[in-house]
Design a protein that fits this description.
heterodimer, A: about 160 residues, alpha+beta, two-stranded antiparallel sheet, 4 helices, elongated, B: about 100 residues, 3 helices, 4 strands, about 25% helix
C-alpha cells in the first residue's frame, strides 16, 4: 500500500489530489428495512427519497468479518496517515454508509458466498433475519450496511 | 445485466469533494467501471487502471453500453509501479482498491 501511495505522489502534479474510498475496518451490519423502495437502473432497490425519513430500520447484528481482511482495511487507514509524511495534506476524511439490499435470506447467502470473501452470517443472525422479515411488511428488505471511508488528500 | 453504478450515498460523498471537470484523472482499481462512467465524461483525460484483465473487459463492455468507449483509456497495470511520467495527473483515485 505504501508503494502505491508513493507512486500516486510521484505521478501527481504539484497541488494534485488523491482520492480514496475503502471499507472501514469494522464488520458490516445486517438490518431489515421497511420502507417504500424503487428500483434503480442497476436493478438495486433504492428507498424512494420522499420516504427516506420514514424508513423503519431493525438492526439484527453484525456479519462475521474475516480478521485478515478487516486488518487490511485498517492498514489502508495507516497507509493514508503515513501519506502525510510523503507530502500530502488532508483536505477531508469522512465515512458514509454503503448499502446492499436483498429480498430474502437465501439471496443474501448466495451473494455472500459468491462475492463477499470477507464476511459471513452465522446461524443466529440468519435466524433473526428470517424472524424479522416474517414480521415485517411484505416489501421489507434485508440490508447490509457497510461503512466506507472517503479521504481526499492534496499534494504539496 | 443491469448497469452497475455508484450508490446514492457514494455519489453524494464523491460529488461533495471533487469536480472532475477538465482534470487528468488516473483511476486505480477500476473493476467493472462502476465508478468510471458516471464521471469520466467530465474529465480532460481519464485513465482507468486495473491488474485484472477480465475486470477490464467488463469495464470495456460497460463503457461501450454508455457510449464512452473513446473517453476512457483502459490499462492493465499495477498501482505499485505506474508507467506514467512524474507529475502528469491532476487526480489519482483509489476506487476501493488501496486495500
Amino acid at each position: 500500500m505504501a508503494l502505491a501511495v508513493a507512486e500516486a505522489h510521484r505521478v501527481l502534479a504539484n497541488t494534485g489530489w488523491l482520492l480514496d474510498l475503502h471499507p472501514n475496518d469494522e464488520p458490516a451490519a445486517l438490518e431489515v428495512w421497511e420502507a417504500h423502495f424503487t428500483m434503480g437502473d442497476d436493478g438495486q432497490a433504492s428507498v424512494a427519497p420522499e420516504h427516506l425519513q420514514a424508513v423503519q430500520r431493525h438492526p439484527l447484528g453484525e456479519l462475521e468479518g474475516d480478521p485478515e481482511i478487516l486488518r487490511d482495511f485498517a492498514f489502508t487507514n495507516d497507509a493514508l496517515a503515513e501519506a502525510l509524511e510523503l507530502g500530502f495534506e488532508v483536505v477531508h476524511s469522512g465515512v458514509f454508509d454503503y448499502y446492499y439490499s436483498f429480498d430474502s435470506v437465501d439471496e443474501l447467502n448466495a451473494y455472500l458466498e459468491d462475492n463477499w470473501e470477507q464476511a459471513s452470517a452465522n446461524d443466529a443472525l440468519l435466524e433473526r433475519a428470517v424472524e424479522t422479515l416474517a414480521r415485517a411488511a411484505p416489501t421489507a428488505k434485508l440490508m447490509i450496511v457497510q461503512k466506507v471511508v472517503i479521504t481526499l488528500l492534496k499534494k504539496f | 445485466m443491469p448497469l452497475t453504478q455508484p450508490s446514492p450515498n457514494e455519489l453524494k460523498a464523491i460529488q461533495f469533494l471533487v469536480r472532475f471537470k477538465d482534470l487528468r484523472v488516473l483511476e486505480i482499481g477500476t473493476g467493472d467501471g462502476r465508478l468510471t462512467w458516471p464521471f469520466a465524461r467530465e474529465a480532460a483525460q481519464w485513465v482507468a487502471l486495473d491488474p485484472d484483465q477480465s475486470e477490464l473487459a467488463l469495464a470495456a463492455e460497460v463503457l461501450r453500453r454508455v457510449s464512452q468507449q473513446n473517453t476512457v483509456r483502459l490499462t492493465l497495470g499495477d498501482a505499485r509501479a505506474l508507467g506514467f511520467p512524474d507529475r502528469y495527473f491532476d487526480l489519482v483515485w483509489f476506487t476501493w482498491s488501496l486495500c
